[in-house]
Amino acid sequence: MESLEELYTIQDSFSDDFLWGVAFSAKQTEGSFDRGITVADLQDYNPKDATKVKGDLSETEILNRLENPSNYYFPKEKGIDFYHRYKEDLELIAKLGVKCLRFSISWARIFPNDDEIPSQVGLDFYDSILQILNDKGITPIITLYHDDMPVRLALEYNGFLSKYINESFIRYAQLILTRYKGKVNHWIIFNQINLTRVGLSSLGIVKDKVTDLEAAKWQAVHNKMVTAAKIVSLGREISKDFRFGSMLADFIVNPETCEPKDIVFATEKNQMTMFLYADVQFFGEYPGYALRYFKENNICIQSDKNELKVLKENTMDFLAISYYNSNVVSAKENSMKIGDSKINPYLEANPWGWTINPRGLYDSFIRYWDRYHKPLMIAENGFGAIETKENDMIDDQYRIQYLNDHLYAIKKAIRQGVNVFAYCLWSPFDIVSSGTSEMKKRYGLIFVDQDDFGKGSGNRFPKKSYYWYQNVIQTNGDSLESFEDDFK
Ligand code: BG6
Prior knowledge:
The model has no long low-confidence stretch (mean pLDDT 96). The chain has 16 helices and 12 strands. The two termini are 31 Å apart. It is α/β, with parallel strands linked by helices. 6-O-phosphono-beta-D-glucopyranose is lined by residues 25, 28, 191-192, 249, 322, 380, 384, 433-436, 441.
């Protein structure tokens, strides 16, 4: 007889082949040169506008922006000019010692016009990035859609609400998957499939071009899940090495109090805003609670037996999570809408009200693992802060603390039996904020000399956290420190 420890493997820390990485999206970095305009390009920056999450534009607002661009400032049109500076940027990323890079391909760069012919210039750009990554031994993890619907597809078809647009997306995906067979194995088809609060960017729906926005959003989500399953099916024929990920924005909420009503409300909210999507993408069918919700709310999703078969037969291989903060809910004060929650009074927050809760990450990972038993990765995790470059080195100790604590939480989750294979820090350099289009919400390990209005040299300067992360990677996480005595 042997002991259980001898019969099983107990993982104590990050595996030797753990993918340490960084992540960013096309829409926040590349700029719009040589590609079609996307809805992200039309999210203007205006310091007088205090809206927390921007970008859910009406048809009139979109047309106004297209017809009178000089009345606005559109930061994502420039991004951080990664399109022209990508060689220098990839060099800095490689010097960090990362093992992987998650980035997105812009659909509007591959198909900038109405025709069916892909842009050679666009393909050359991504060919070149992948060649550099290959030369440097960095594993690419590609997102095929990171909230950057080509604007004409939103205006004419309401994006993923249209089955025709879903078919176009599948053709684009097939082209990319075929072209990069042998070069890319990890695919995240859709960024944060559950984060539909800005329907224009996640789904391509122009909010006033539908009669029932909530029903339209659920239909578009369904279409996206069927599309993802069809892409998985195609992908499995293209290469047996492909691995496909479902990606969720972590919006797991906890009850504000131990009052049973709050507890049950949090559970049901987590079902509808988080688990529903992964339940469909991993179990291949809609759960009972979702069908009940749709029925009780008169949401009638159009589908057929063929689609349900495709969903059942093409489930995902891994779960990718973006994790930044965590909140609580009260049955009395909050609704079922994703993001409608309250600040947890036990936590500190950044200037945007994003709380800091590494224990929440640990807790979430245990829940995902217990439910799905699929390998997990962090697709995004990072800390946005206001920073200016006055001295040679930005001493971003607060970011180091945040990253240390969240990475330590992952290490502890691994020790608790969770299978985690990658961590992609958001982001290697300061980039334009997705939600507010400002530059001053800086996440980077590398400072980019550019302000909210795109002014500055654009030059890149590693911060203290850059060297700190380099060391974490070199030591395979051994340099991480436990942050509280009871969390070891
Ligand atoms: C994630 C998005 O939801 O949040 C990223 O996938 C985004 O694109 C990140 O940048 C942080 O949000 P923000 O609004 O601070 O840029």
